[in-house]
Amino acid sequence: MTTRAAVDNYVAAIGQGLAGVRIGLVRESMESGVLDPEVRRLVADAAVALGGAGARVEEISIPLIDHASALYVAIAEPEAAARFRPYLLTRSHDIDVLPRRRLLTASLIPASLIARARRLGDRLQAQVDEALRVVDVLVSPTTPTAAPPIATASRVTSKDDAWMTVVAGRSLFTNPFNITGHPALSVPCGFTADGLPVGLQVVGRYNREADVLRVAAAYEAVTPWHDRLPEV
Hints:
The protein has nine helices and five strands; from the N terminus they run H-E-H-H-E-H-H-H-E-H-H-E-E-H. With 232 residues, it is an alpha/beta fold. Strand 4 and strand 5 form a beta hairpin. Helix 4 crosses helix 5 and helix 4 packs across helix 6.
C-alpha cells in the first residue's frame, strides 16, 4: 500500500519518551489459549515497564482478532496460488513439497469464500481503527511462543498444536496487521528459562510510524533485552 501522506520526523520521535502516551494491551492476544505462559508473563512485564516509563497502559479488546489467521489464509493463500499458478502447471517439481501442497490446496478455495474473508477483514480493520482512537498504540506478544531452537522437530500432539502448525503458526499475532496494513514492529522483551528470546509487538495508526518507533525506542531505553544475544 502506498500513500502521499506527509512523513513524520522519525528521528525526533525516538527521543521523546513515553509521557502522556496511551498504550493498549490487546486482551484477546494475552488470553489466547495457545500463548505460552512464559511469553504471557514477559509481555505483561513489558506492559508494566512501559507504565513505569510514563505511559498509560490499559487493556483493550479487538473481538475479531482471534479470527485473523483464518482470514489471512483465505485471503493471502489464494493470492499466492494465483501468482504461482503458471509454475504449478509447468514446473511444480521445482517447488518444495510443503509450499506446493499449500498452493495446491489454496487454489481450491472458492472465490465466494475469499470475498467473505475480505469483508470480515474490513470489519477487523474497523475494529483496530476504533481501538486506536482510544489509545495511541497497541502492544501484544509478537509470537505465541519464544523463538524455537535451531533444527527442533515439530510434532503435532493436540488440536491446539494442529491449529498452530497448519493455520496460525508463529504469525498468529502478526497476521491481523498483515490484513489491516497498520504499521507494526517487534522489539525484544525478555528470555524464557531456556534462554530463548521473546518479542513485544507494537502497532500504530496509519501514517503514524513515528508513534510506533517512539514507543519501541522508549521501551528499549528502560530494558536490557536488546543488548542480550541468545546462546547459539
